[in-house]
Write a sequence for this structure.
C-alpha cells in the first residue's frame, strides 16, 4: 500500500516537472520569436534605406541627425558641455578662430 502512495507522489512530481519544462520551453520560444521579429523590422528599415524607399524628407532628417552627432563627437562638444555643466559655467560664443577651426575639421 505504501508503495502505491510513493508511485502517486512520483507521478504528481513528474507532472509538475513536465509543466515547468513546458513553461520554460514556451518562454524561450517566445523570446526567440520576439528577437526574430525585432531583427526583421530593423533589417527591413535598413533595406528600405538602401533601396531608397524613404522620402527625401526622411533622408534629410536622418542625415541631419547623423551629421550632428558625428560633428559633436569629432569636435569634442559633448565633453565640453559636460565639463561646463560640472563647472557651472555658462555657454560662450565661439571666437572667429574657433569657428574657422571647426569648419576646417568638418571639411577634412
Amino acid at each position: 500500500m505504501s508503495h502505491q502512495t510513493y508511485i502517486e507522489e512520483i507521478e504528481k512530481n513528474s507532472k509538475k516537472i513536465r509543466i515547468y519544462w513546458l513553461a520554460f520551453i514556451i518562454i524561450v520560444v517566445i523570446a526567440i520569436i520576439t528577437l526574430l521579429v525585432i531583427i526583421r523590422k530593423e533589417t527591413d528599415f535598413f533595406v528600405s534605406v538602401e533601396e531608397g524607399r524613404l522620402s527625401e524628407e526622411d533622408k534629410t532628417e536622418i542625415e541631419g541627425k547623423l551629421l550632428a552627432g558625428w560633428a559633436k563627437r569629432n569636435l569634442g562638444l559633448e565633453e565640453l558641455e559636460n565639463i561646463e555643466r560640472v563647472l557651472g559655467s555658462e555657454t560662450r560664443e565661439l571666437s572667429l578662430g574657433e569657428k574657422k577651426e571647426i569648419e576646417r575639421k568638418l571639411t577634412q
